[in-house]
């Protein structure tokens, strides 16, 4: 049997030692669901930034190209993520990059650890 209290202690100790505070912001929306105004602060979570590898396959004719894509994530305490009620589309800045929340996962369904999936916002908009 897993000692969940010990697992929670290990995570809390690592977050206290190596964690960084991340501030999440949320934009207001109009009647059409479009963002309006400046984003307002939702709250701050102490977490550990990490990346997960994902493979993207592109098949063209007889050949297949496989490319590895990094998925940025933040590991934090579940109670912290649940208290903020993070939503898909909430934003945060890391090293002058804007990232958007794409989901929050309850690791092992223990209600101890959460993993926040992120996506880098590409500001390079091509004007026609």
What does this structure look like?
A six-stranded antiparallel sheet has the order 1-2-3-6-5-4. It is built from two helices and six strands. The protein is an alpha+beta fold. It has helices spanning 4-18, 78-84, and strands at residues 20-29, 35-60, 63-77, 91-94, 97-106, 113-120. 17% of the residues lie in helices and 57% in strands.
Kindly report the spatial arrangement of strands forming the biggest sheet: 1-2-3-6-5-4
Secondary structure: number of strands: 6
Share in β-strands: over 45%
Helix content: 10-25%
Q: Let me know the largest β-sheet.
A: 6 strands, antiparallel
Cα separation of the termini: 60 Å
**Average pLDDT, all residues:** 90
The oligomeric state is single chain
Overall form: globular
Number of helices: 2
Determine the structural class based on helices, strands and strand pairing. alpha+beta
Highlighted features:
128 residues, alpha+beta, 6-stranded antiparallel β-sheet, 6 strands
Brief description of this entry?
This protein has 128 residues and is α+β, with helices and mostly antiparallel strands.
Blueprint (SSEs and pairs):
Blueprint: H1 4-18, E1 20-29, E2 35-60, E3 63-77, H2 78-84, E4 91-94, E5 97-106, E6 113-120
Antiparallel strand pairs: 1-2, 2-3, 3-6, 4-5, 5-6
